[in-house]
Specification:
231 residues, alpha/beta, Rossmann fold, five-stranded parallel beta sheet, three-stranded antiparallel beta sheet, 11 helices, 8 strands, binds cytidine-5'-diphosphate
Length: 231
């Protein structure tokens, strides 16, 4: 069976990253969390008071940013590093979540991160999740998935996840944040979140994680068979 690339796009808290990680695990593929990169840039911009309206300052700041992922064997997961520091927890806090879509809408930021993501996805055998993976980052991906879910369900999932990290956040604040990010992510000029024609749409509202994984694995398997073998 040939190796393929899998692109998973969609709204926040539909289950993209949890599903993508499990699929990468099952297929022994590499998982790449593109959202973590946008979050790391946002953290740097917040901590260094970068003025988002000043293109020159944004460009200069981007030159000072180095992002990489390192595997934590104790936790059995890959973690995000910003300029050599582990920022895996910091990038998931609300102060970053509240700013990330504004930073992600900047064309200069997208250019730098898309280049990096394309380098990481050059060799087949990658599962990458985000907003523009099927459309811009990996347009040749053999499987493209577009995930959706009801807003209330998404917000409850995110609230539960934050609670598990000892962060108590009001449900309405989460809904406001998700709705705001949906709006900015779908309407920005460069790399907006969009469902490409060839993407398989999965509504996860009433699904379990395991069901999502199985459905995507089935789609993936059918694309791993060479066309010659199919005939
Ligand atoms: O996990 P969650 O769905 O909340 O978000 P994420 O995947 O970590 O992405 C955080 C934000 O980064 C999104 O709301 C987008 O603004 C931005 N993002 C993007 O613009 N393009 C991507 N490929 C991935 C994330
Ligand atoms: O990456 P994205 O923001 O789309 O979602 P996620 O971070 O993978 O999922 C958000 C939360 O929803 C996680 O805690 C998942 O375990 C949970 N969840 C899910 O993804 N799918 C379900 N069917 C049920 C819960």
């Amino acid at each position: 069976m040939k190796k393929i690339n899998i692109a998973i796009d969609g709204y926040s808290a539909c289950g993209k990253s949890s599903t993508a990680k499990m699929i990468a695990n099952r297929l022994q593929y590499k998982y790449i969390d593109s959202g973590a990169m946008y979050r790391a840039v946002t953290l740097y911009f917040i901590d260094n008071y970068v003025d988002l309206t000043n293109e020159k300052k944004v460009d200069k700041a981007l030159k000072n940013i180095q992002i990489d992922f390192r595997f934590n064997s104790k936790k059995e997961k890959s973690e995000t590093y910003l300029n050599g520091l582990n920022v895996e927890e910091d990038i998931r806090t609300m102060r970053v979540t509240n700013m990330v879509s504004e930073v992600s809408a900047l064309p200069e930021v997208r250019k730098v991160l898309v280049d990096l993501q394309q380098k990481l996805g050059k060799k087949k055998g990658v599962v990458m999740d985000g907003r523009d993976i099927g459309s811009i980052v990996l347009p040749d991906a053999e499987l493209k998935v577009f995930m959706t879910a009801d807003m209330k369900v998404r917000a409850l999932r995110r609230q539960q996840e934050l609670l598990e990290k000892d962060q108590l956040v009001d449900l309405n604040d989460i809904i406001d944040n998700l709705a705001k990010r949906d709006r900015i992510d779908t309407t920005r000029k460069v790399g907006p979140l969009t469902k490409v024609d060839e993407a398989v749409e999965i509504d996860t509202t009433h699904m379990t994680l395991e069901e999502q994984v199985e459905e995507i694995l089935n789609e993936a398997t059918s694309r791993m068979v060479d066309n010659k073998q199919k005939i």
